[in-house]
Amino acid sequence: MVGRALGLPQKAEDLIAGIDRRFAQARAGHPGFAKLSMVVADTFEAGKFSAFTTTDPKMIFMTEVSSERFDLFDADRLVWPNSDLGAEARIRAGPVYRKLKVSAEKRDLFITYENPPVGAAISFNTALSIPYAIEQLVPKLAASL
User: Fold this and answer.
1) DSSP 46-111
2) Is 38 helix (H, G, I), strand (E, B) or coil?
3) Which of 65, 78, 134, 135 minimizes the number of CB atoms within 10 Å of its CB?
């Protein structure tokens, strides 16, 4: 839509095609990804956590849950994009979280919104940010397979 609005529909289509190729390359290089479940979560307040649904660019806000329901987050991969630099230490210190397989087996991944802006890249999910996110996340997601 933006490409059409700017009078650059072919450029927009080319950008989209390039992104599709990058996703295809990532899938081809890591066929095991297709079999994995993933949760993307965030925390804005100590003791309260949020997960995102599959319809969000980073998976749309689903619900807020307490640490007693961390079982909902025990997936093959658990990604935590966050802007709170203390969130990782706070989450990892939680006794319930430490009992999750995804935590114990180090299949969780904490990414920041800035420095580097990987969390922002998947949050904004634009033609410019997606290639960067693929480049940054694929090796990190593949590391524990």
Assistant:
1) TTEEEEE-TTSTTS-EEEEEEGGGGGGG-SSEEEEEES-TTHHHHHHH-HHHHHSHHHHTT-EEEE
2) strand
3) 135
- Residue 103 has φ and ψ, to the nearest 5°, of -80, -50
Report whether 29 contacts 138 (CB < 8 A). yes
Please report where in the chains the tokens 């693929």 appear, as a residue: 134
Backbone angles phi, psi at 110, to 5 degrees: -105, 125
**Is a pLDDT exceeding 70 seen at residue 97?**
yes
Q: Is the pLDDT of residue 47 over 90?
A: no
Number of H helices, E strands in the chain: 7, 5
For residue 65, how many other CB atoms are within 10 A of its CB?
16
